[in-house]
Amino acid sequence: MEVIQPLSFVSKIKNGKTFPFKVHTANGEYIVKAINEDFNYKGLINEFICYNLAKLLNLPIPDATLMEINEEFISDNETLFEVVPNNCIAFASKYTRGNPSITPPLLNRLVNKEDIPGIILFDQIIYNNDRAANRGNLIISKTGNLLIIDHSHVFKDGLVWSSNSLHNLTTSPITLVDSFDGQNYTYLQKYVNGHSPFNKILEGIEKLSPSDIDLCFSAIPNEWLQKVSDEEIHHLKIFLCHRLDKKDAIIELLKNKCPNWKGGVLND
């Protein structure tokens, strides 16, 4: 993934609990997440892996890149110093104008309703507890597309996952995210309907190769990897492969949560 440079600081993002901020670059505006006292390297790794996996599965997600936040840029922006006290390689998503309020009238006008089942299944695979109820992890673009954003608090334990926590998840019975009954999912479940709503994402999962998964991990910046252990990365890869492999079991659990789904999994 390319590493780009910021040109100017625009603003802090008011509602982000990980203290994201907006910058201007030669390629437009980006929303940036960088290391600070409330956001660690595991958060960056979470964002990076989930972004790459979402792209492999053709899910609707803003383009992203890496960004160098150096000392000179920080010192030139007093407000930024309050958020990012040290230079680092950050994760940056292309800024997309849109509406973070997910309401039934807005969802009815979406042009990509067929992506909703895939988004829900994707969240179960990465154990994203943050999307079902948290306003701000979905956005409806000006073009009427539902986009997924913000994957820092995934793998169930967000910024504090460990080898032990991932091993316990991998060896325990498959479950859905704890927050499944949150308001966002309540609205989205309506669009898990028909006979094969998960067909699109399932076809994408079937096409994944071991090298695809390896690529999600091998391109993680060394600066980030130095802050976690090899054992932790090993268990994270095992966890992710396990959840992908158990997609059918996850879908069986989803049947009881999606009353508009008539049954069936993958089209012949």
From TrEMBL:
Source organism, top-level taxon: Bacteria
Query: InterPro entries from the xrefs?
Result: HipA_2
Q: Which organism is it from?
A: Listeria booriae
- Please report the name of this protein according to its UniProt entry: HipA domain-containing protein
Name any one Pfam family assigned in the record: HipA_2
